[in-house]
Amino acid sequence: MIHPVLPPACYTEQSWFDLEKKKIFGELWLLAGLKQQLQTEHSFITRNFSGVPVLIQNLGGEIRAFRNACAHRGMPLQIEDCGNRKLICPYHGWSYHNDGRLRGIPNEKIYNLCQSDQANIKLLAYAVEVIGNFVFVNLNTHPIPITEQFSTDLLRLLKEVSVHFAPEISYTTFTGNYNWKLNFENVLDWNHAQFVHRQTLAPLLKFESGGIFSAAAPDKSLLFVPGSPLADIRFSGDIQLSNPIHLQDISRIGRSSMPYAPRWFSPLLNAPVDPGAFFACNIFPNVNFGSIHGEHFYVQQFSPTAPDRIEYHSWVFTARLKPNIPPQPHLLWGIHHAEKRVIDEDRVLLDALQRALASAPHIGVMGDHEASLAAVGHWYIQHLDTRSAQ
Fold this sequence. Notes:
The protein is an alpha+beta fold. The chain has two domains: 1-27 and 146-390, START domain (Alpha-D-Glucose-1,6-Bisphosphate, Chain A, domain 4), CATH 3.30.530.20; 29-143, Rieske Iron-sulfur Protein (3-layer Sandwich), CATH 2.102.10. 23% of the residues lie in helices and 24% in strands. The longest helix is centred in the last third of the chain and has 29 residues, at 329-357.
């Protein structure tokens, strides 16, 4: 038996949320989007990380990130969720170089800004790390090395599997009325799949006696077959609840058996990248990435906007299509529709759990298989100065 670490208050109270904004979302590397969204010059995406507006844009072939605020009056430089537009403020036309330095001011004389003043004007830049097709940003002035947050195996997997991504994606956002940690705990909690997803995901999986997922064989995989770049990847086993818990320990890589049968769109793909398997990466603090047979992929992110509210970001895409096959938007729509059905099965219960925690005196016991959930709680307590939340 494992005793829960986190009190209900850390899921419901503003004081804990304020600490998270500073100590987690203000210090750690956060997924901003995918390179598929930033393929052309001037293409951009905008995000809001716990109240911080962030612009990520392809500038001169390099992906850069800035606070999405003009240095003049703070107007967002890009006001859409995504698009293609030069780095020019829509309010007064101030423009910027690729590195964020001021480029030009229309009607310059009315501002009466000398050249030295203008030379010191620049956008607030954030650190960017591109791992394969995954674009991460860090809002801290002195960001930690990304290798301190994510294991070498996880970074290798993100890089190597990105080679197989098709360039076309389907992307959507929606909201959830629950704490972000509940969603991360949910994706770590593999045992819930048999009960919550009994008619959607569970029938596709293969279980051993006692409800444990069957291990997937590597022999048919293009990712994990002996001799491939990921042949020696270490999948996450039961975590040891040592003290302290290291940040790298709470992001997890799992792979289980999923009996393979070709689907109608299988002949459109170069090849199934990982047939007979379902793999998932639970990337702390708030991302779930995985694959069904290596034929299609999903990325889910649950970004907090309040103690009891998230903005859910969902991307789906396939493995690369054969050279003569045109983009298949109807296929992506169908995959996303099925993905959303699974997500909604979780959201209904997590909404209910959030409401229950609002008046809960404590959280109940946990089983040994939930050690990874407890590890997140241990790291959370270690990292946050909980005394200031009292």
